[in-house]
Amino acid sequence: MQKPMKVCILGGGTAGWMTASALSNKYKGLGVEITLIESDQIGTVGVGEATLPHIRFFNETLGIDERTFMKETEATFKLGIEFCDWGALGDRYIHPFGDYGVPLHGMDFHQLWLRLKNHGTVTRLDDYSYPIIAAEQGRFQIPSGDVNTIGSNFGYAYQFDSSLYAKFLRRYGEQNGVIRIEGKVVVTALNPSTGGVESVTLENGKQIQADLYIDCSGFRGVLIEQALETGYDDWSEWLPCNRAVAAPCEARGQLLPFTRATARQAGWQWRIPLQHRTGNGYVYWNEFISDDEATHQLMSTLEGPALADPKQLFFKTGRRKKFWNKNVVSIGLSGGFLEPLESTSIHLIQEGITTLVELFPSEGIHPLDIEEYNERMGLNFERVRDFLLLHYIATQRDDSDMWRYFRNMTLPDSLQEKLDAWMRRGYVLQYEIGVFLPPSWVAVMLGQNLVPTAYDPRADAIAQEALQGQLDQIKSQTLQAVHATPEQSEFLQRYGAASQTRPLMAS
Q1: Is residue 245 part of a domain?
Q2: Numbers of helices and strands, H then E, in the chain
Q3: Which residues are catalytic?
């Protein structure tokens, strides 16, 4: 009989329990023993509450019922992210989880819109997006099955309490055979011949040995950095915000199906509506605002009474030089940090897990698998970095030192290439690896006033009157579909996803 493969996950929280749940689901009954070490004395960051649509497929793979998950985590639906004051003061737009319009004439819809915009005969691009109009009106429903109809060509994500999600997944993982050990690692022993981790020892003297270690210990990087000294690529040159303060408050008003990111003079502020409360935070660059002033700005702009004292976070944007080093894989904050402007934190955890499953070393750790893992995760992080940076540099603001810094920045070549292709002809370069598809780039670039100087010349082959009629019809059908959509609070109740213990709305 083949010797069981032992996997040790260090750290709980969202990253640890997502990893444990996924591996226990995938390798149940296949000779893989999974142990997770966490300490109740060590807190988790626990403010990442907004997600991307990919989280749905993670839950579905685990066989998790959506209604049950939403009740347990006090979740709401999410159709996109609203950005306020990013391009210029007073601007607002929504980055939706879906394309604009419908396919026409074999061209991207925005190319046809750009052609009519040149003649001043169309309204904003947002008016041709069902998820944007639905989000603005606080409405939601599950996409219909007919992918060719308005009201079906969009995705959705969740806004949830991440600490409740970790507890939910802990129950799932333990039912699937994951062994949880309470304790803090105080000694990490390295193998003298391989240089990898041989064992970890807890405060109580218990020693744990494994074939593969997964570091989910957060910013501390207990194994990947403290033990293996892997190194860190600092991206503060491009994403210099380095602190955040977060606080929940009572929910007020309509339950909106989107996250909001409002630009401030020294950073930006988030608002994430859950069923039982609203999550808030201020991400900032401490060179231009003090911790006390940032806390004051956050607390003075809450929509309702605070439910907890503000929590201070310190970070440095960037990534590990290697996500997988020897027999240690870093997932979550131990692998790197990118500010949560586009809700990518949990998605990058998911990418790390998915890639590990594809390259899982059941026959022993191989250097080519390590190389492939590091290359894929490196590209995932770099392309998220570029997308986040786009928000800061696509701006007309010069009302503070921070915004002037971004207006004079030399960009990474990868982002400059993307911008050049867009500004010349409205084209979005596409990648095989990277979470954000062309409609997302279109949303931010047009939302922040980066209008191309030209468009696809094939659009000129269509008679203007005919094209105008087609776009007018799409706009009308979009409004009709939204008007037939219930408000999110009503849908949650009907769907059976509403919390039974707390009200959806507070007056």
Answers
A1: no
A2: 14, 21
A3: 78
Q: What is the CATH number of the domain that holds 331?
A: 3.50.50.60
Which pTM value belongs to this model? 0.95
Query: Are the CB atoms for 183 and 202 separated by under 8 Å?
Result: yes
Share of the chain above pLDDT 90, in %: 89
Check residues 63 and 253 and name the one with the higher pLDDT.
63
Most distant CA atoms of the chain, gap in Å: 79
Q: Specify if 471 maps to a domain.
A: no
187 occurs within a structural domain: yes
Nearest to 112 by CA among 455, 463, 466: 455
Domain count of the fold of the chain: 1
Boundaries of domain holding 335: 5-49+161-234+321-365
Which residue type sits at 349? I
10: which residues sit within 8 A by CB, 6+ positions away? 16, 36, 37, 185, 200, 213, 214, 215, 216, 217, 222, 223
What's the pLDDT tens digit per position in 270-303? 999 999 999 999 999 999 999 999 999 999 999 9
Within its chain, how far is the Cα of 320 from the centroid? 19
- Which region holds residue 208: left if phi is over 0, alpha if psi is between -120 and 50, else beta? beta
DSSP code string of 311-366? EEEE---EEES-SEETTEEE-GGGTEE--GGGS-HHHHHHHHHHHHHHT--TT---
